[in-house]
């Protein structure tokens, strides 16, 4: 595997990924314990994104706090609290910053772990990762940007829908937290006025585990361990009794299964296409009198997910994709393209220190959490300062990641509709400053992701809207400075991403949370 990794990195010209500038520096070690400024007690009335309604699951009523069964659960909690080990205290300190934020971090780690394109076979063909055999080489998944965007979205949506349902049942049953029933229980986390049944953390653990088992099947043992650790943390901290945990876990898993049904029918299974599809895309481009994109790798690698643009979006109807798709790029033989090529060549030959910093910071290539993950990291650093409730954390991530997934769909639909060549294919003098992605140029993925993310985040945190837009512009410029995109790719990509972001805003205005 070390040999494979070395060859992959060499083949992709990605030595710049080793730069210390490439990742957002996350100060998660210093995150405070979750103590929401607003508990969002009315969240049970918010609109879920996939689940039909908050009442779609039949959660049984809990035992009353006066019952013998509940009193036994309180006694268990006291015993656990009286004999905590150092490891259990570590677990409490890890999870108490918030369940949603921790699972988002776990997601980013797994995306980075699996963001490795397969190395070629001896016959110069490329193997395809298989979900049915995730431990065989190449391991499943290859979490490239489209795959990652979809994965972040579905996990966030499952968490959000499950938490909306949890709040519905909290309000319905109103069973108090154990420390509100018995003053002798001193919790290791901030006390909450929310009802305890079902446990929010158990809901999130159940939903996250079910979704991520589908998305990262080779990591089931690790994910199961983290979910169990999180549920135990609520017991060890004195925040929930065992029946709160069991009910939450069951509810979270059920909500995730509803999202999984949607995911299995969204068209992702056919996104890789086949040789017939690849040949048709190239021939269609030639028929328009244009120069088609081709793989720059040796041997030539099949294009990355050429039919991802046919995946069903989350925020708008699939039938709207052609109408949202931007018009064509400048013709390869046009004066406009000549000017844009000269601009790219100038940047690659005369890159400043600041431009190189920007290229490296936004590279987000092989072995990283991808551009969607980069925007999740940026969002996390901003969200944590707002003291959100768990359900608002989940709602905001769901809006952001739905926008990123749909941006990927629209971007990939555009890329493979036009099949536009990269700058270094039209002008061999251009030597890129970062790895050349294995898919067509127009429109820029970084720009589309960034336009969608900045627009969505600017609505959620309006006082930082200008800052997010500056970040998006810098991310877009990074691809021009690096020599892998023309200006039209970047400008139109940003505009297209913004259109997707407006759909996220439209949903936010009607989901009941504002």
TrEMBL record:
<feature type="domain" description="Phosphatidic acid phosphatase type 2/haloperoxidase">
    <location>
        <begin position="400"/>
        <end position="496"/>
    </location>
</feature>
<dbReference type="InterPro" id="IPR036938">
    <property type="entry name" value="PAP2/HPO_sf"/>
</dbReference>
<dbReference type="Pfam" id="PF01569">
    <property type="entry name" value="PAP2"/>
</dbReference>
<keyword id="KW-0732">Signal</keyword>
<protein>
    <submittedName>
        <fullName>PAP2 superfamily protein</fullName>
    </submittedName>
</protein>
<dbReference type="InterPro" id="IPR000326">
    <property type="entry name" value="PAP2/HPO"/>
</dbReference>
<dbReference type="InterPro" id="IPR052559">
    <property type="entry name" value="V-haloperoxidase"/>
</dbReference>
<feature type="signal peptide">
    <location>
        <begin position="1"/>
        <end position="18"/>
    </location>
</feature>
